[in-house]
Amino acid sequence: TKRKFFYIDSKNTVEVSMMSKNINGSYYLDKTKRYSAMIDRFDSYGVVGIFILPDFDSDLKTLVSDFTIDDLKQLVSSSISMKVEATIPKFNLKQNLSTKKIIIDMGVQDVFSHSCDLSGATDFPVFTSDILHSANIEINEEGVIAAAATAILVNTRCLKPSLEIVKFIADRPFLFLIYDQKNGFPVFISAVVNPN
Where is the Serpin domain (predicted)? Predict the structure, then answer.
């Protein structure tokens, strides 16, 4: 790990801890949408980390606005297994989200009502006030550490081999995904604009 510059945009840089490592991963280059991607296998269950880096003459905003689930599936299915000399910043992503509105929009409303009968859960008169979800992803020298938790707040009523080695240097904003290859969907997506 070395301190290096991360180029937030053409005018702003920050000094970050950049990790360099040769990995047996996969690489994908899309010349039409102007990005490259590295896939790092995290475990034997088919969960991978995908780093998607816009070309130098493009930007993350353009990539995100044009990127579709079909692009992601194409990336995963067409990537080439090879050694990748990866240089990526250490980063930690955290998100806390209230899911109450999402759950109500899905049609589950009664549980948030004061008249909901939750007597099987406790002897006290309670109702659900919110359901919170928290996710934490940390990328460091050890690999990826991912944790997620959901809490229900109850109140009382009063994620062909090649010999070639490709360099992948994520020293500017990129997308990071944790992707479940077995089931074919992303379990986590984030834009890393400033690793600090």
Answer: 1-195
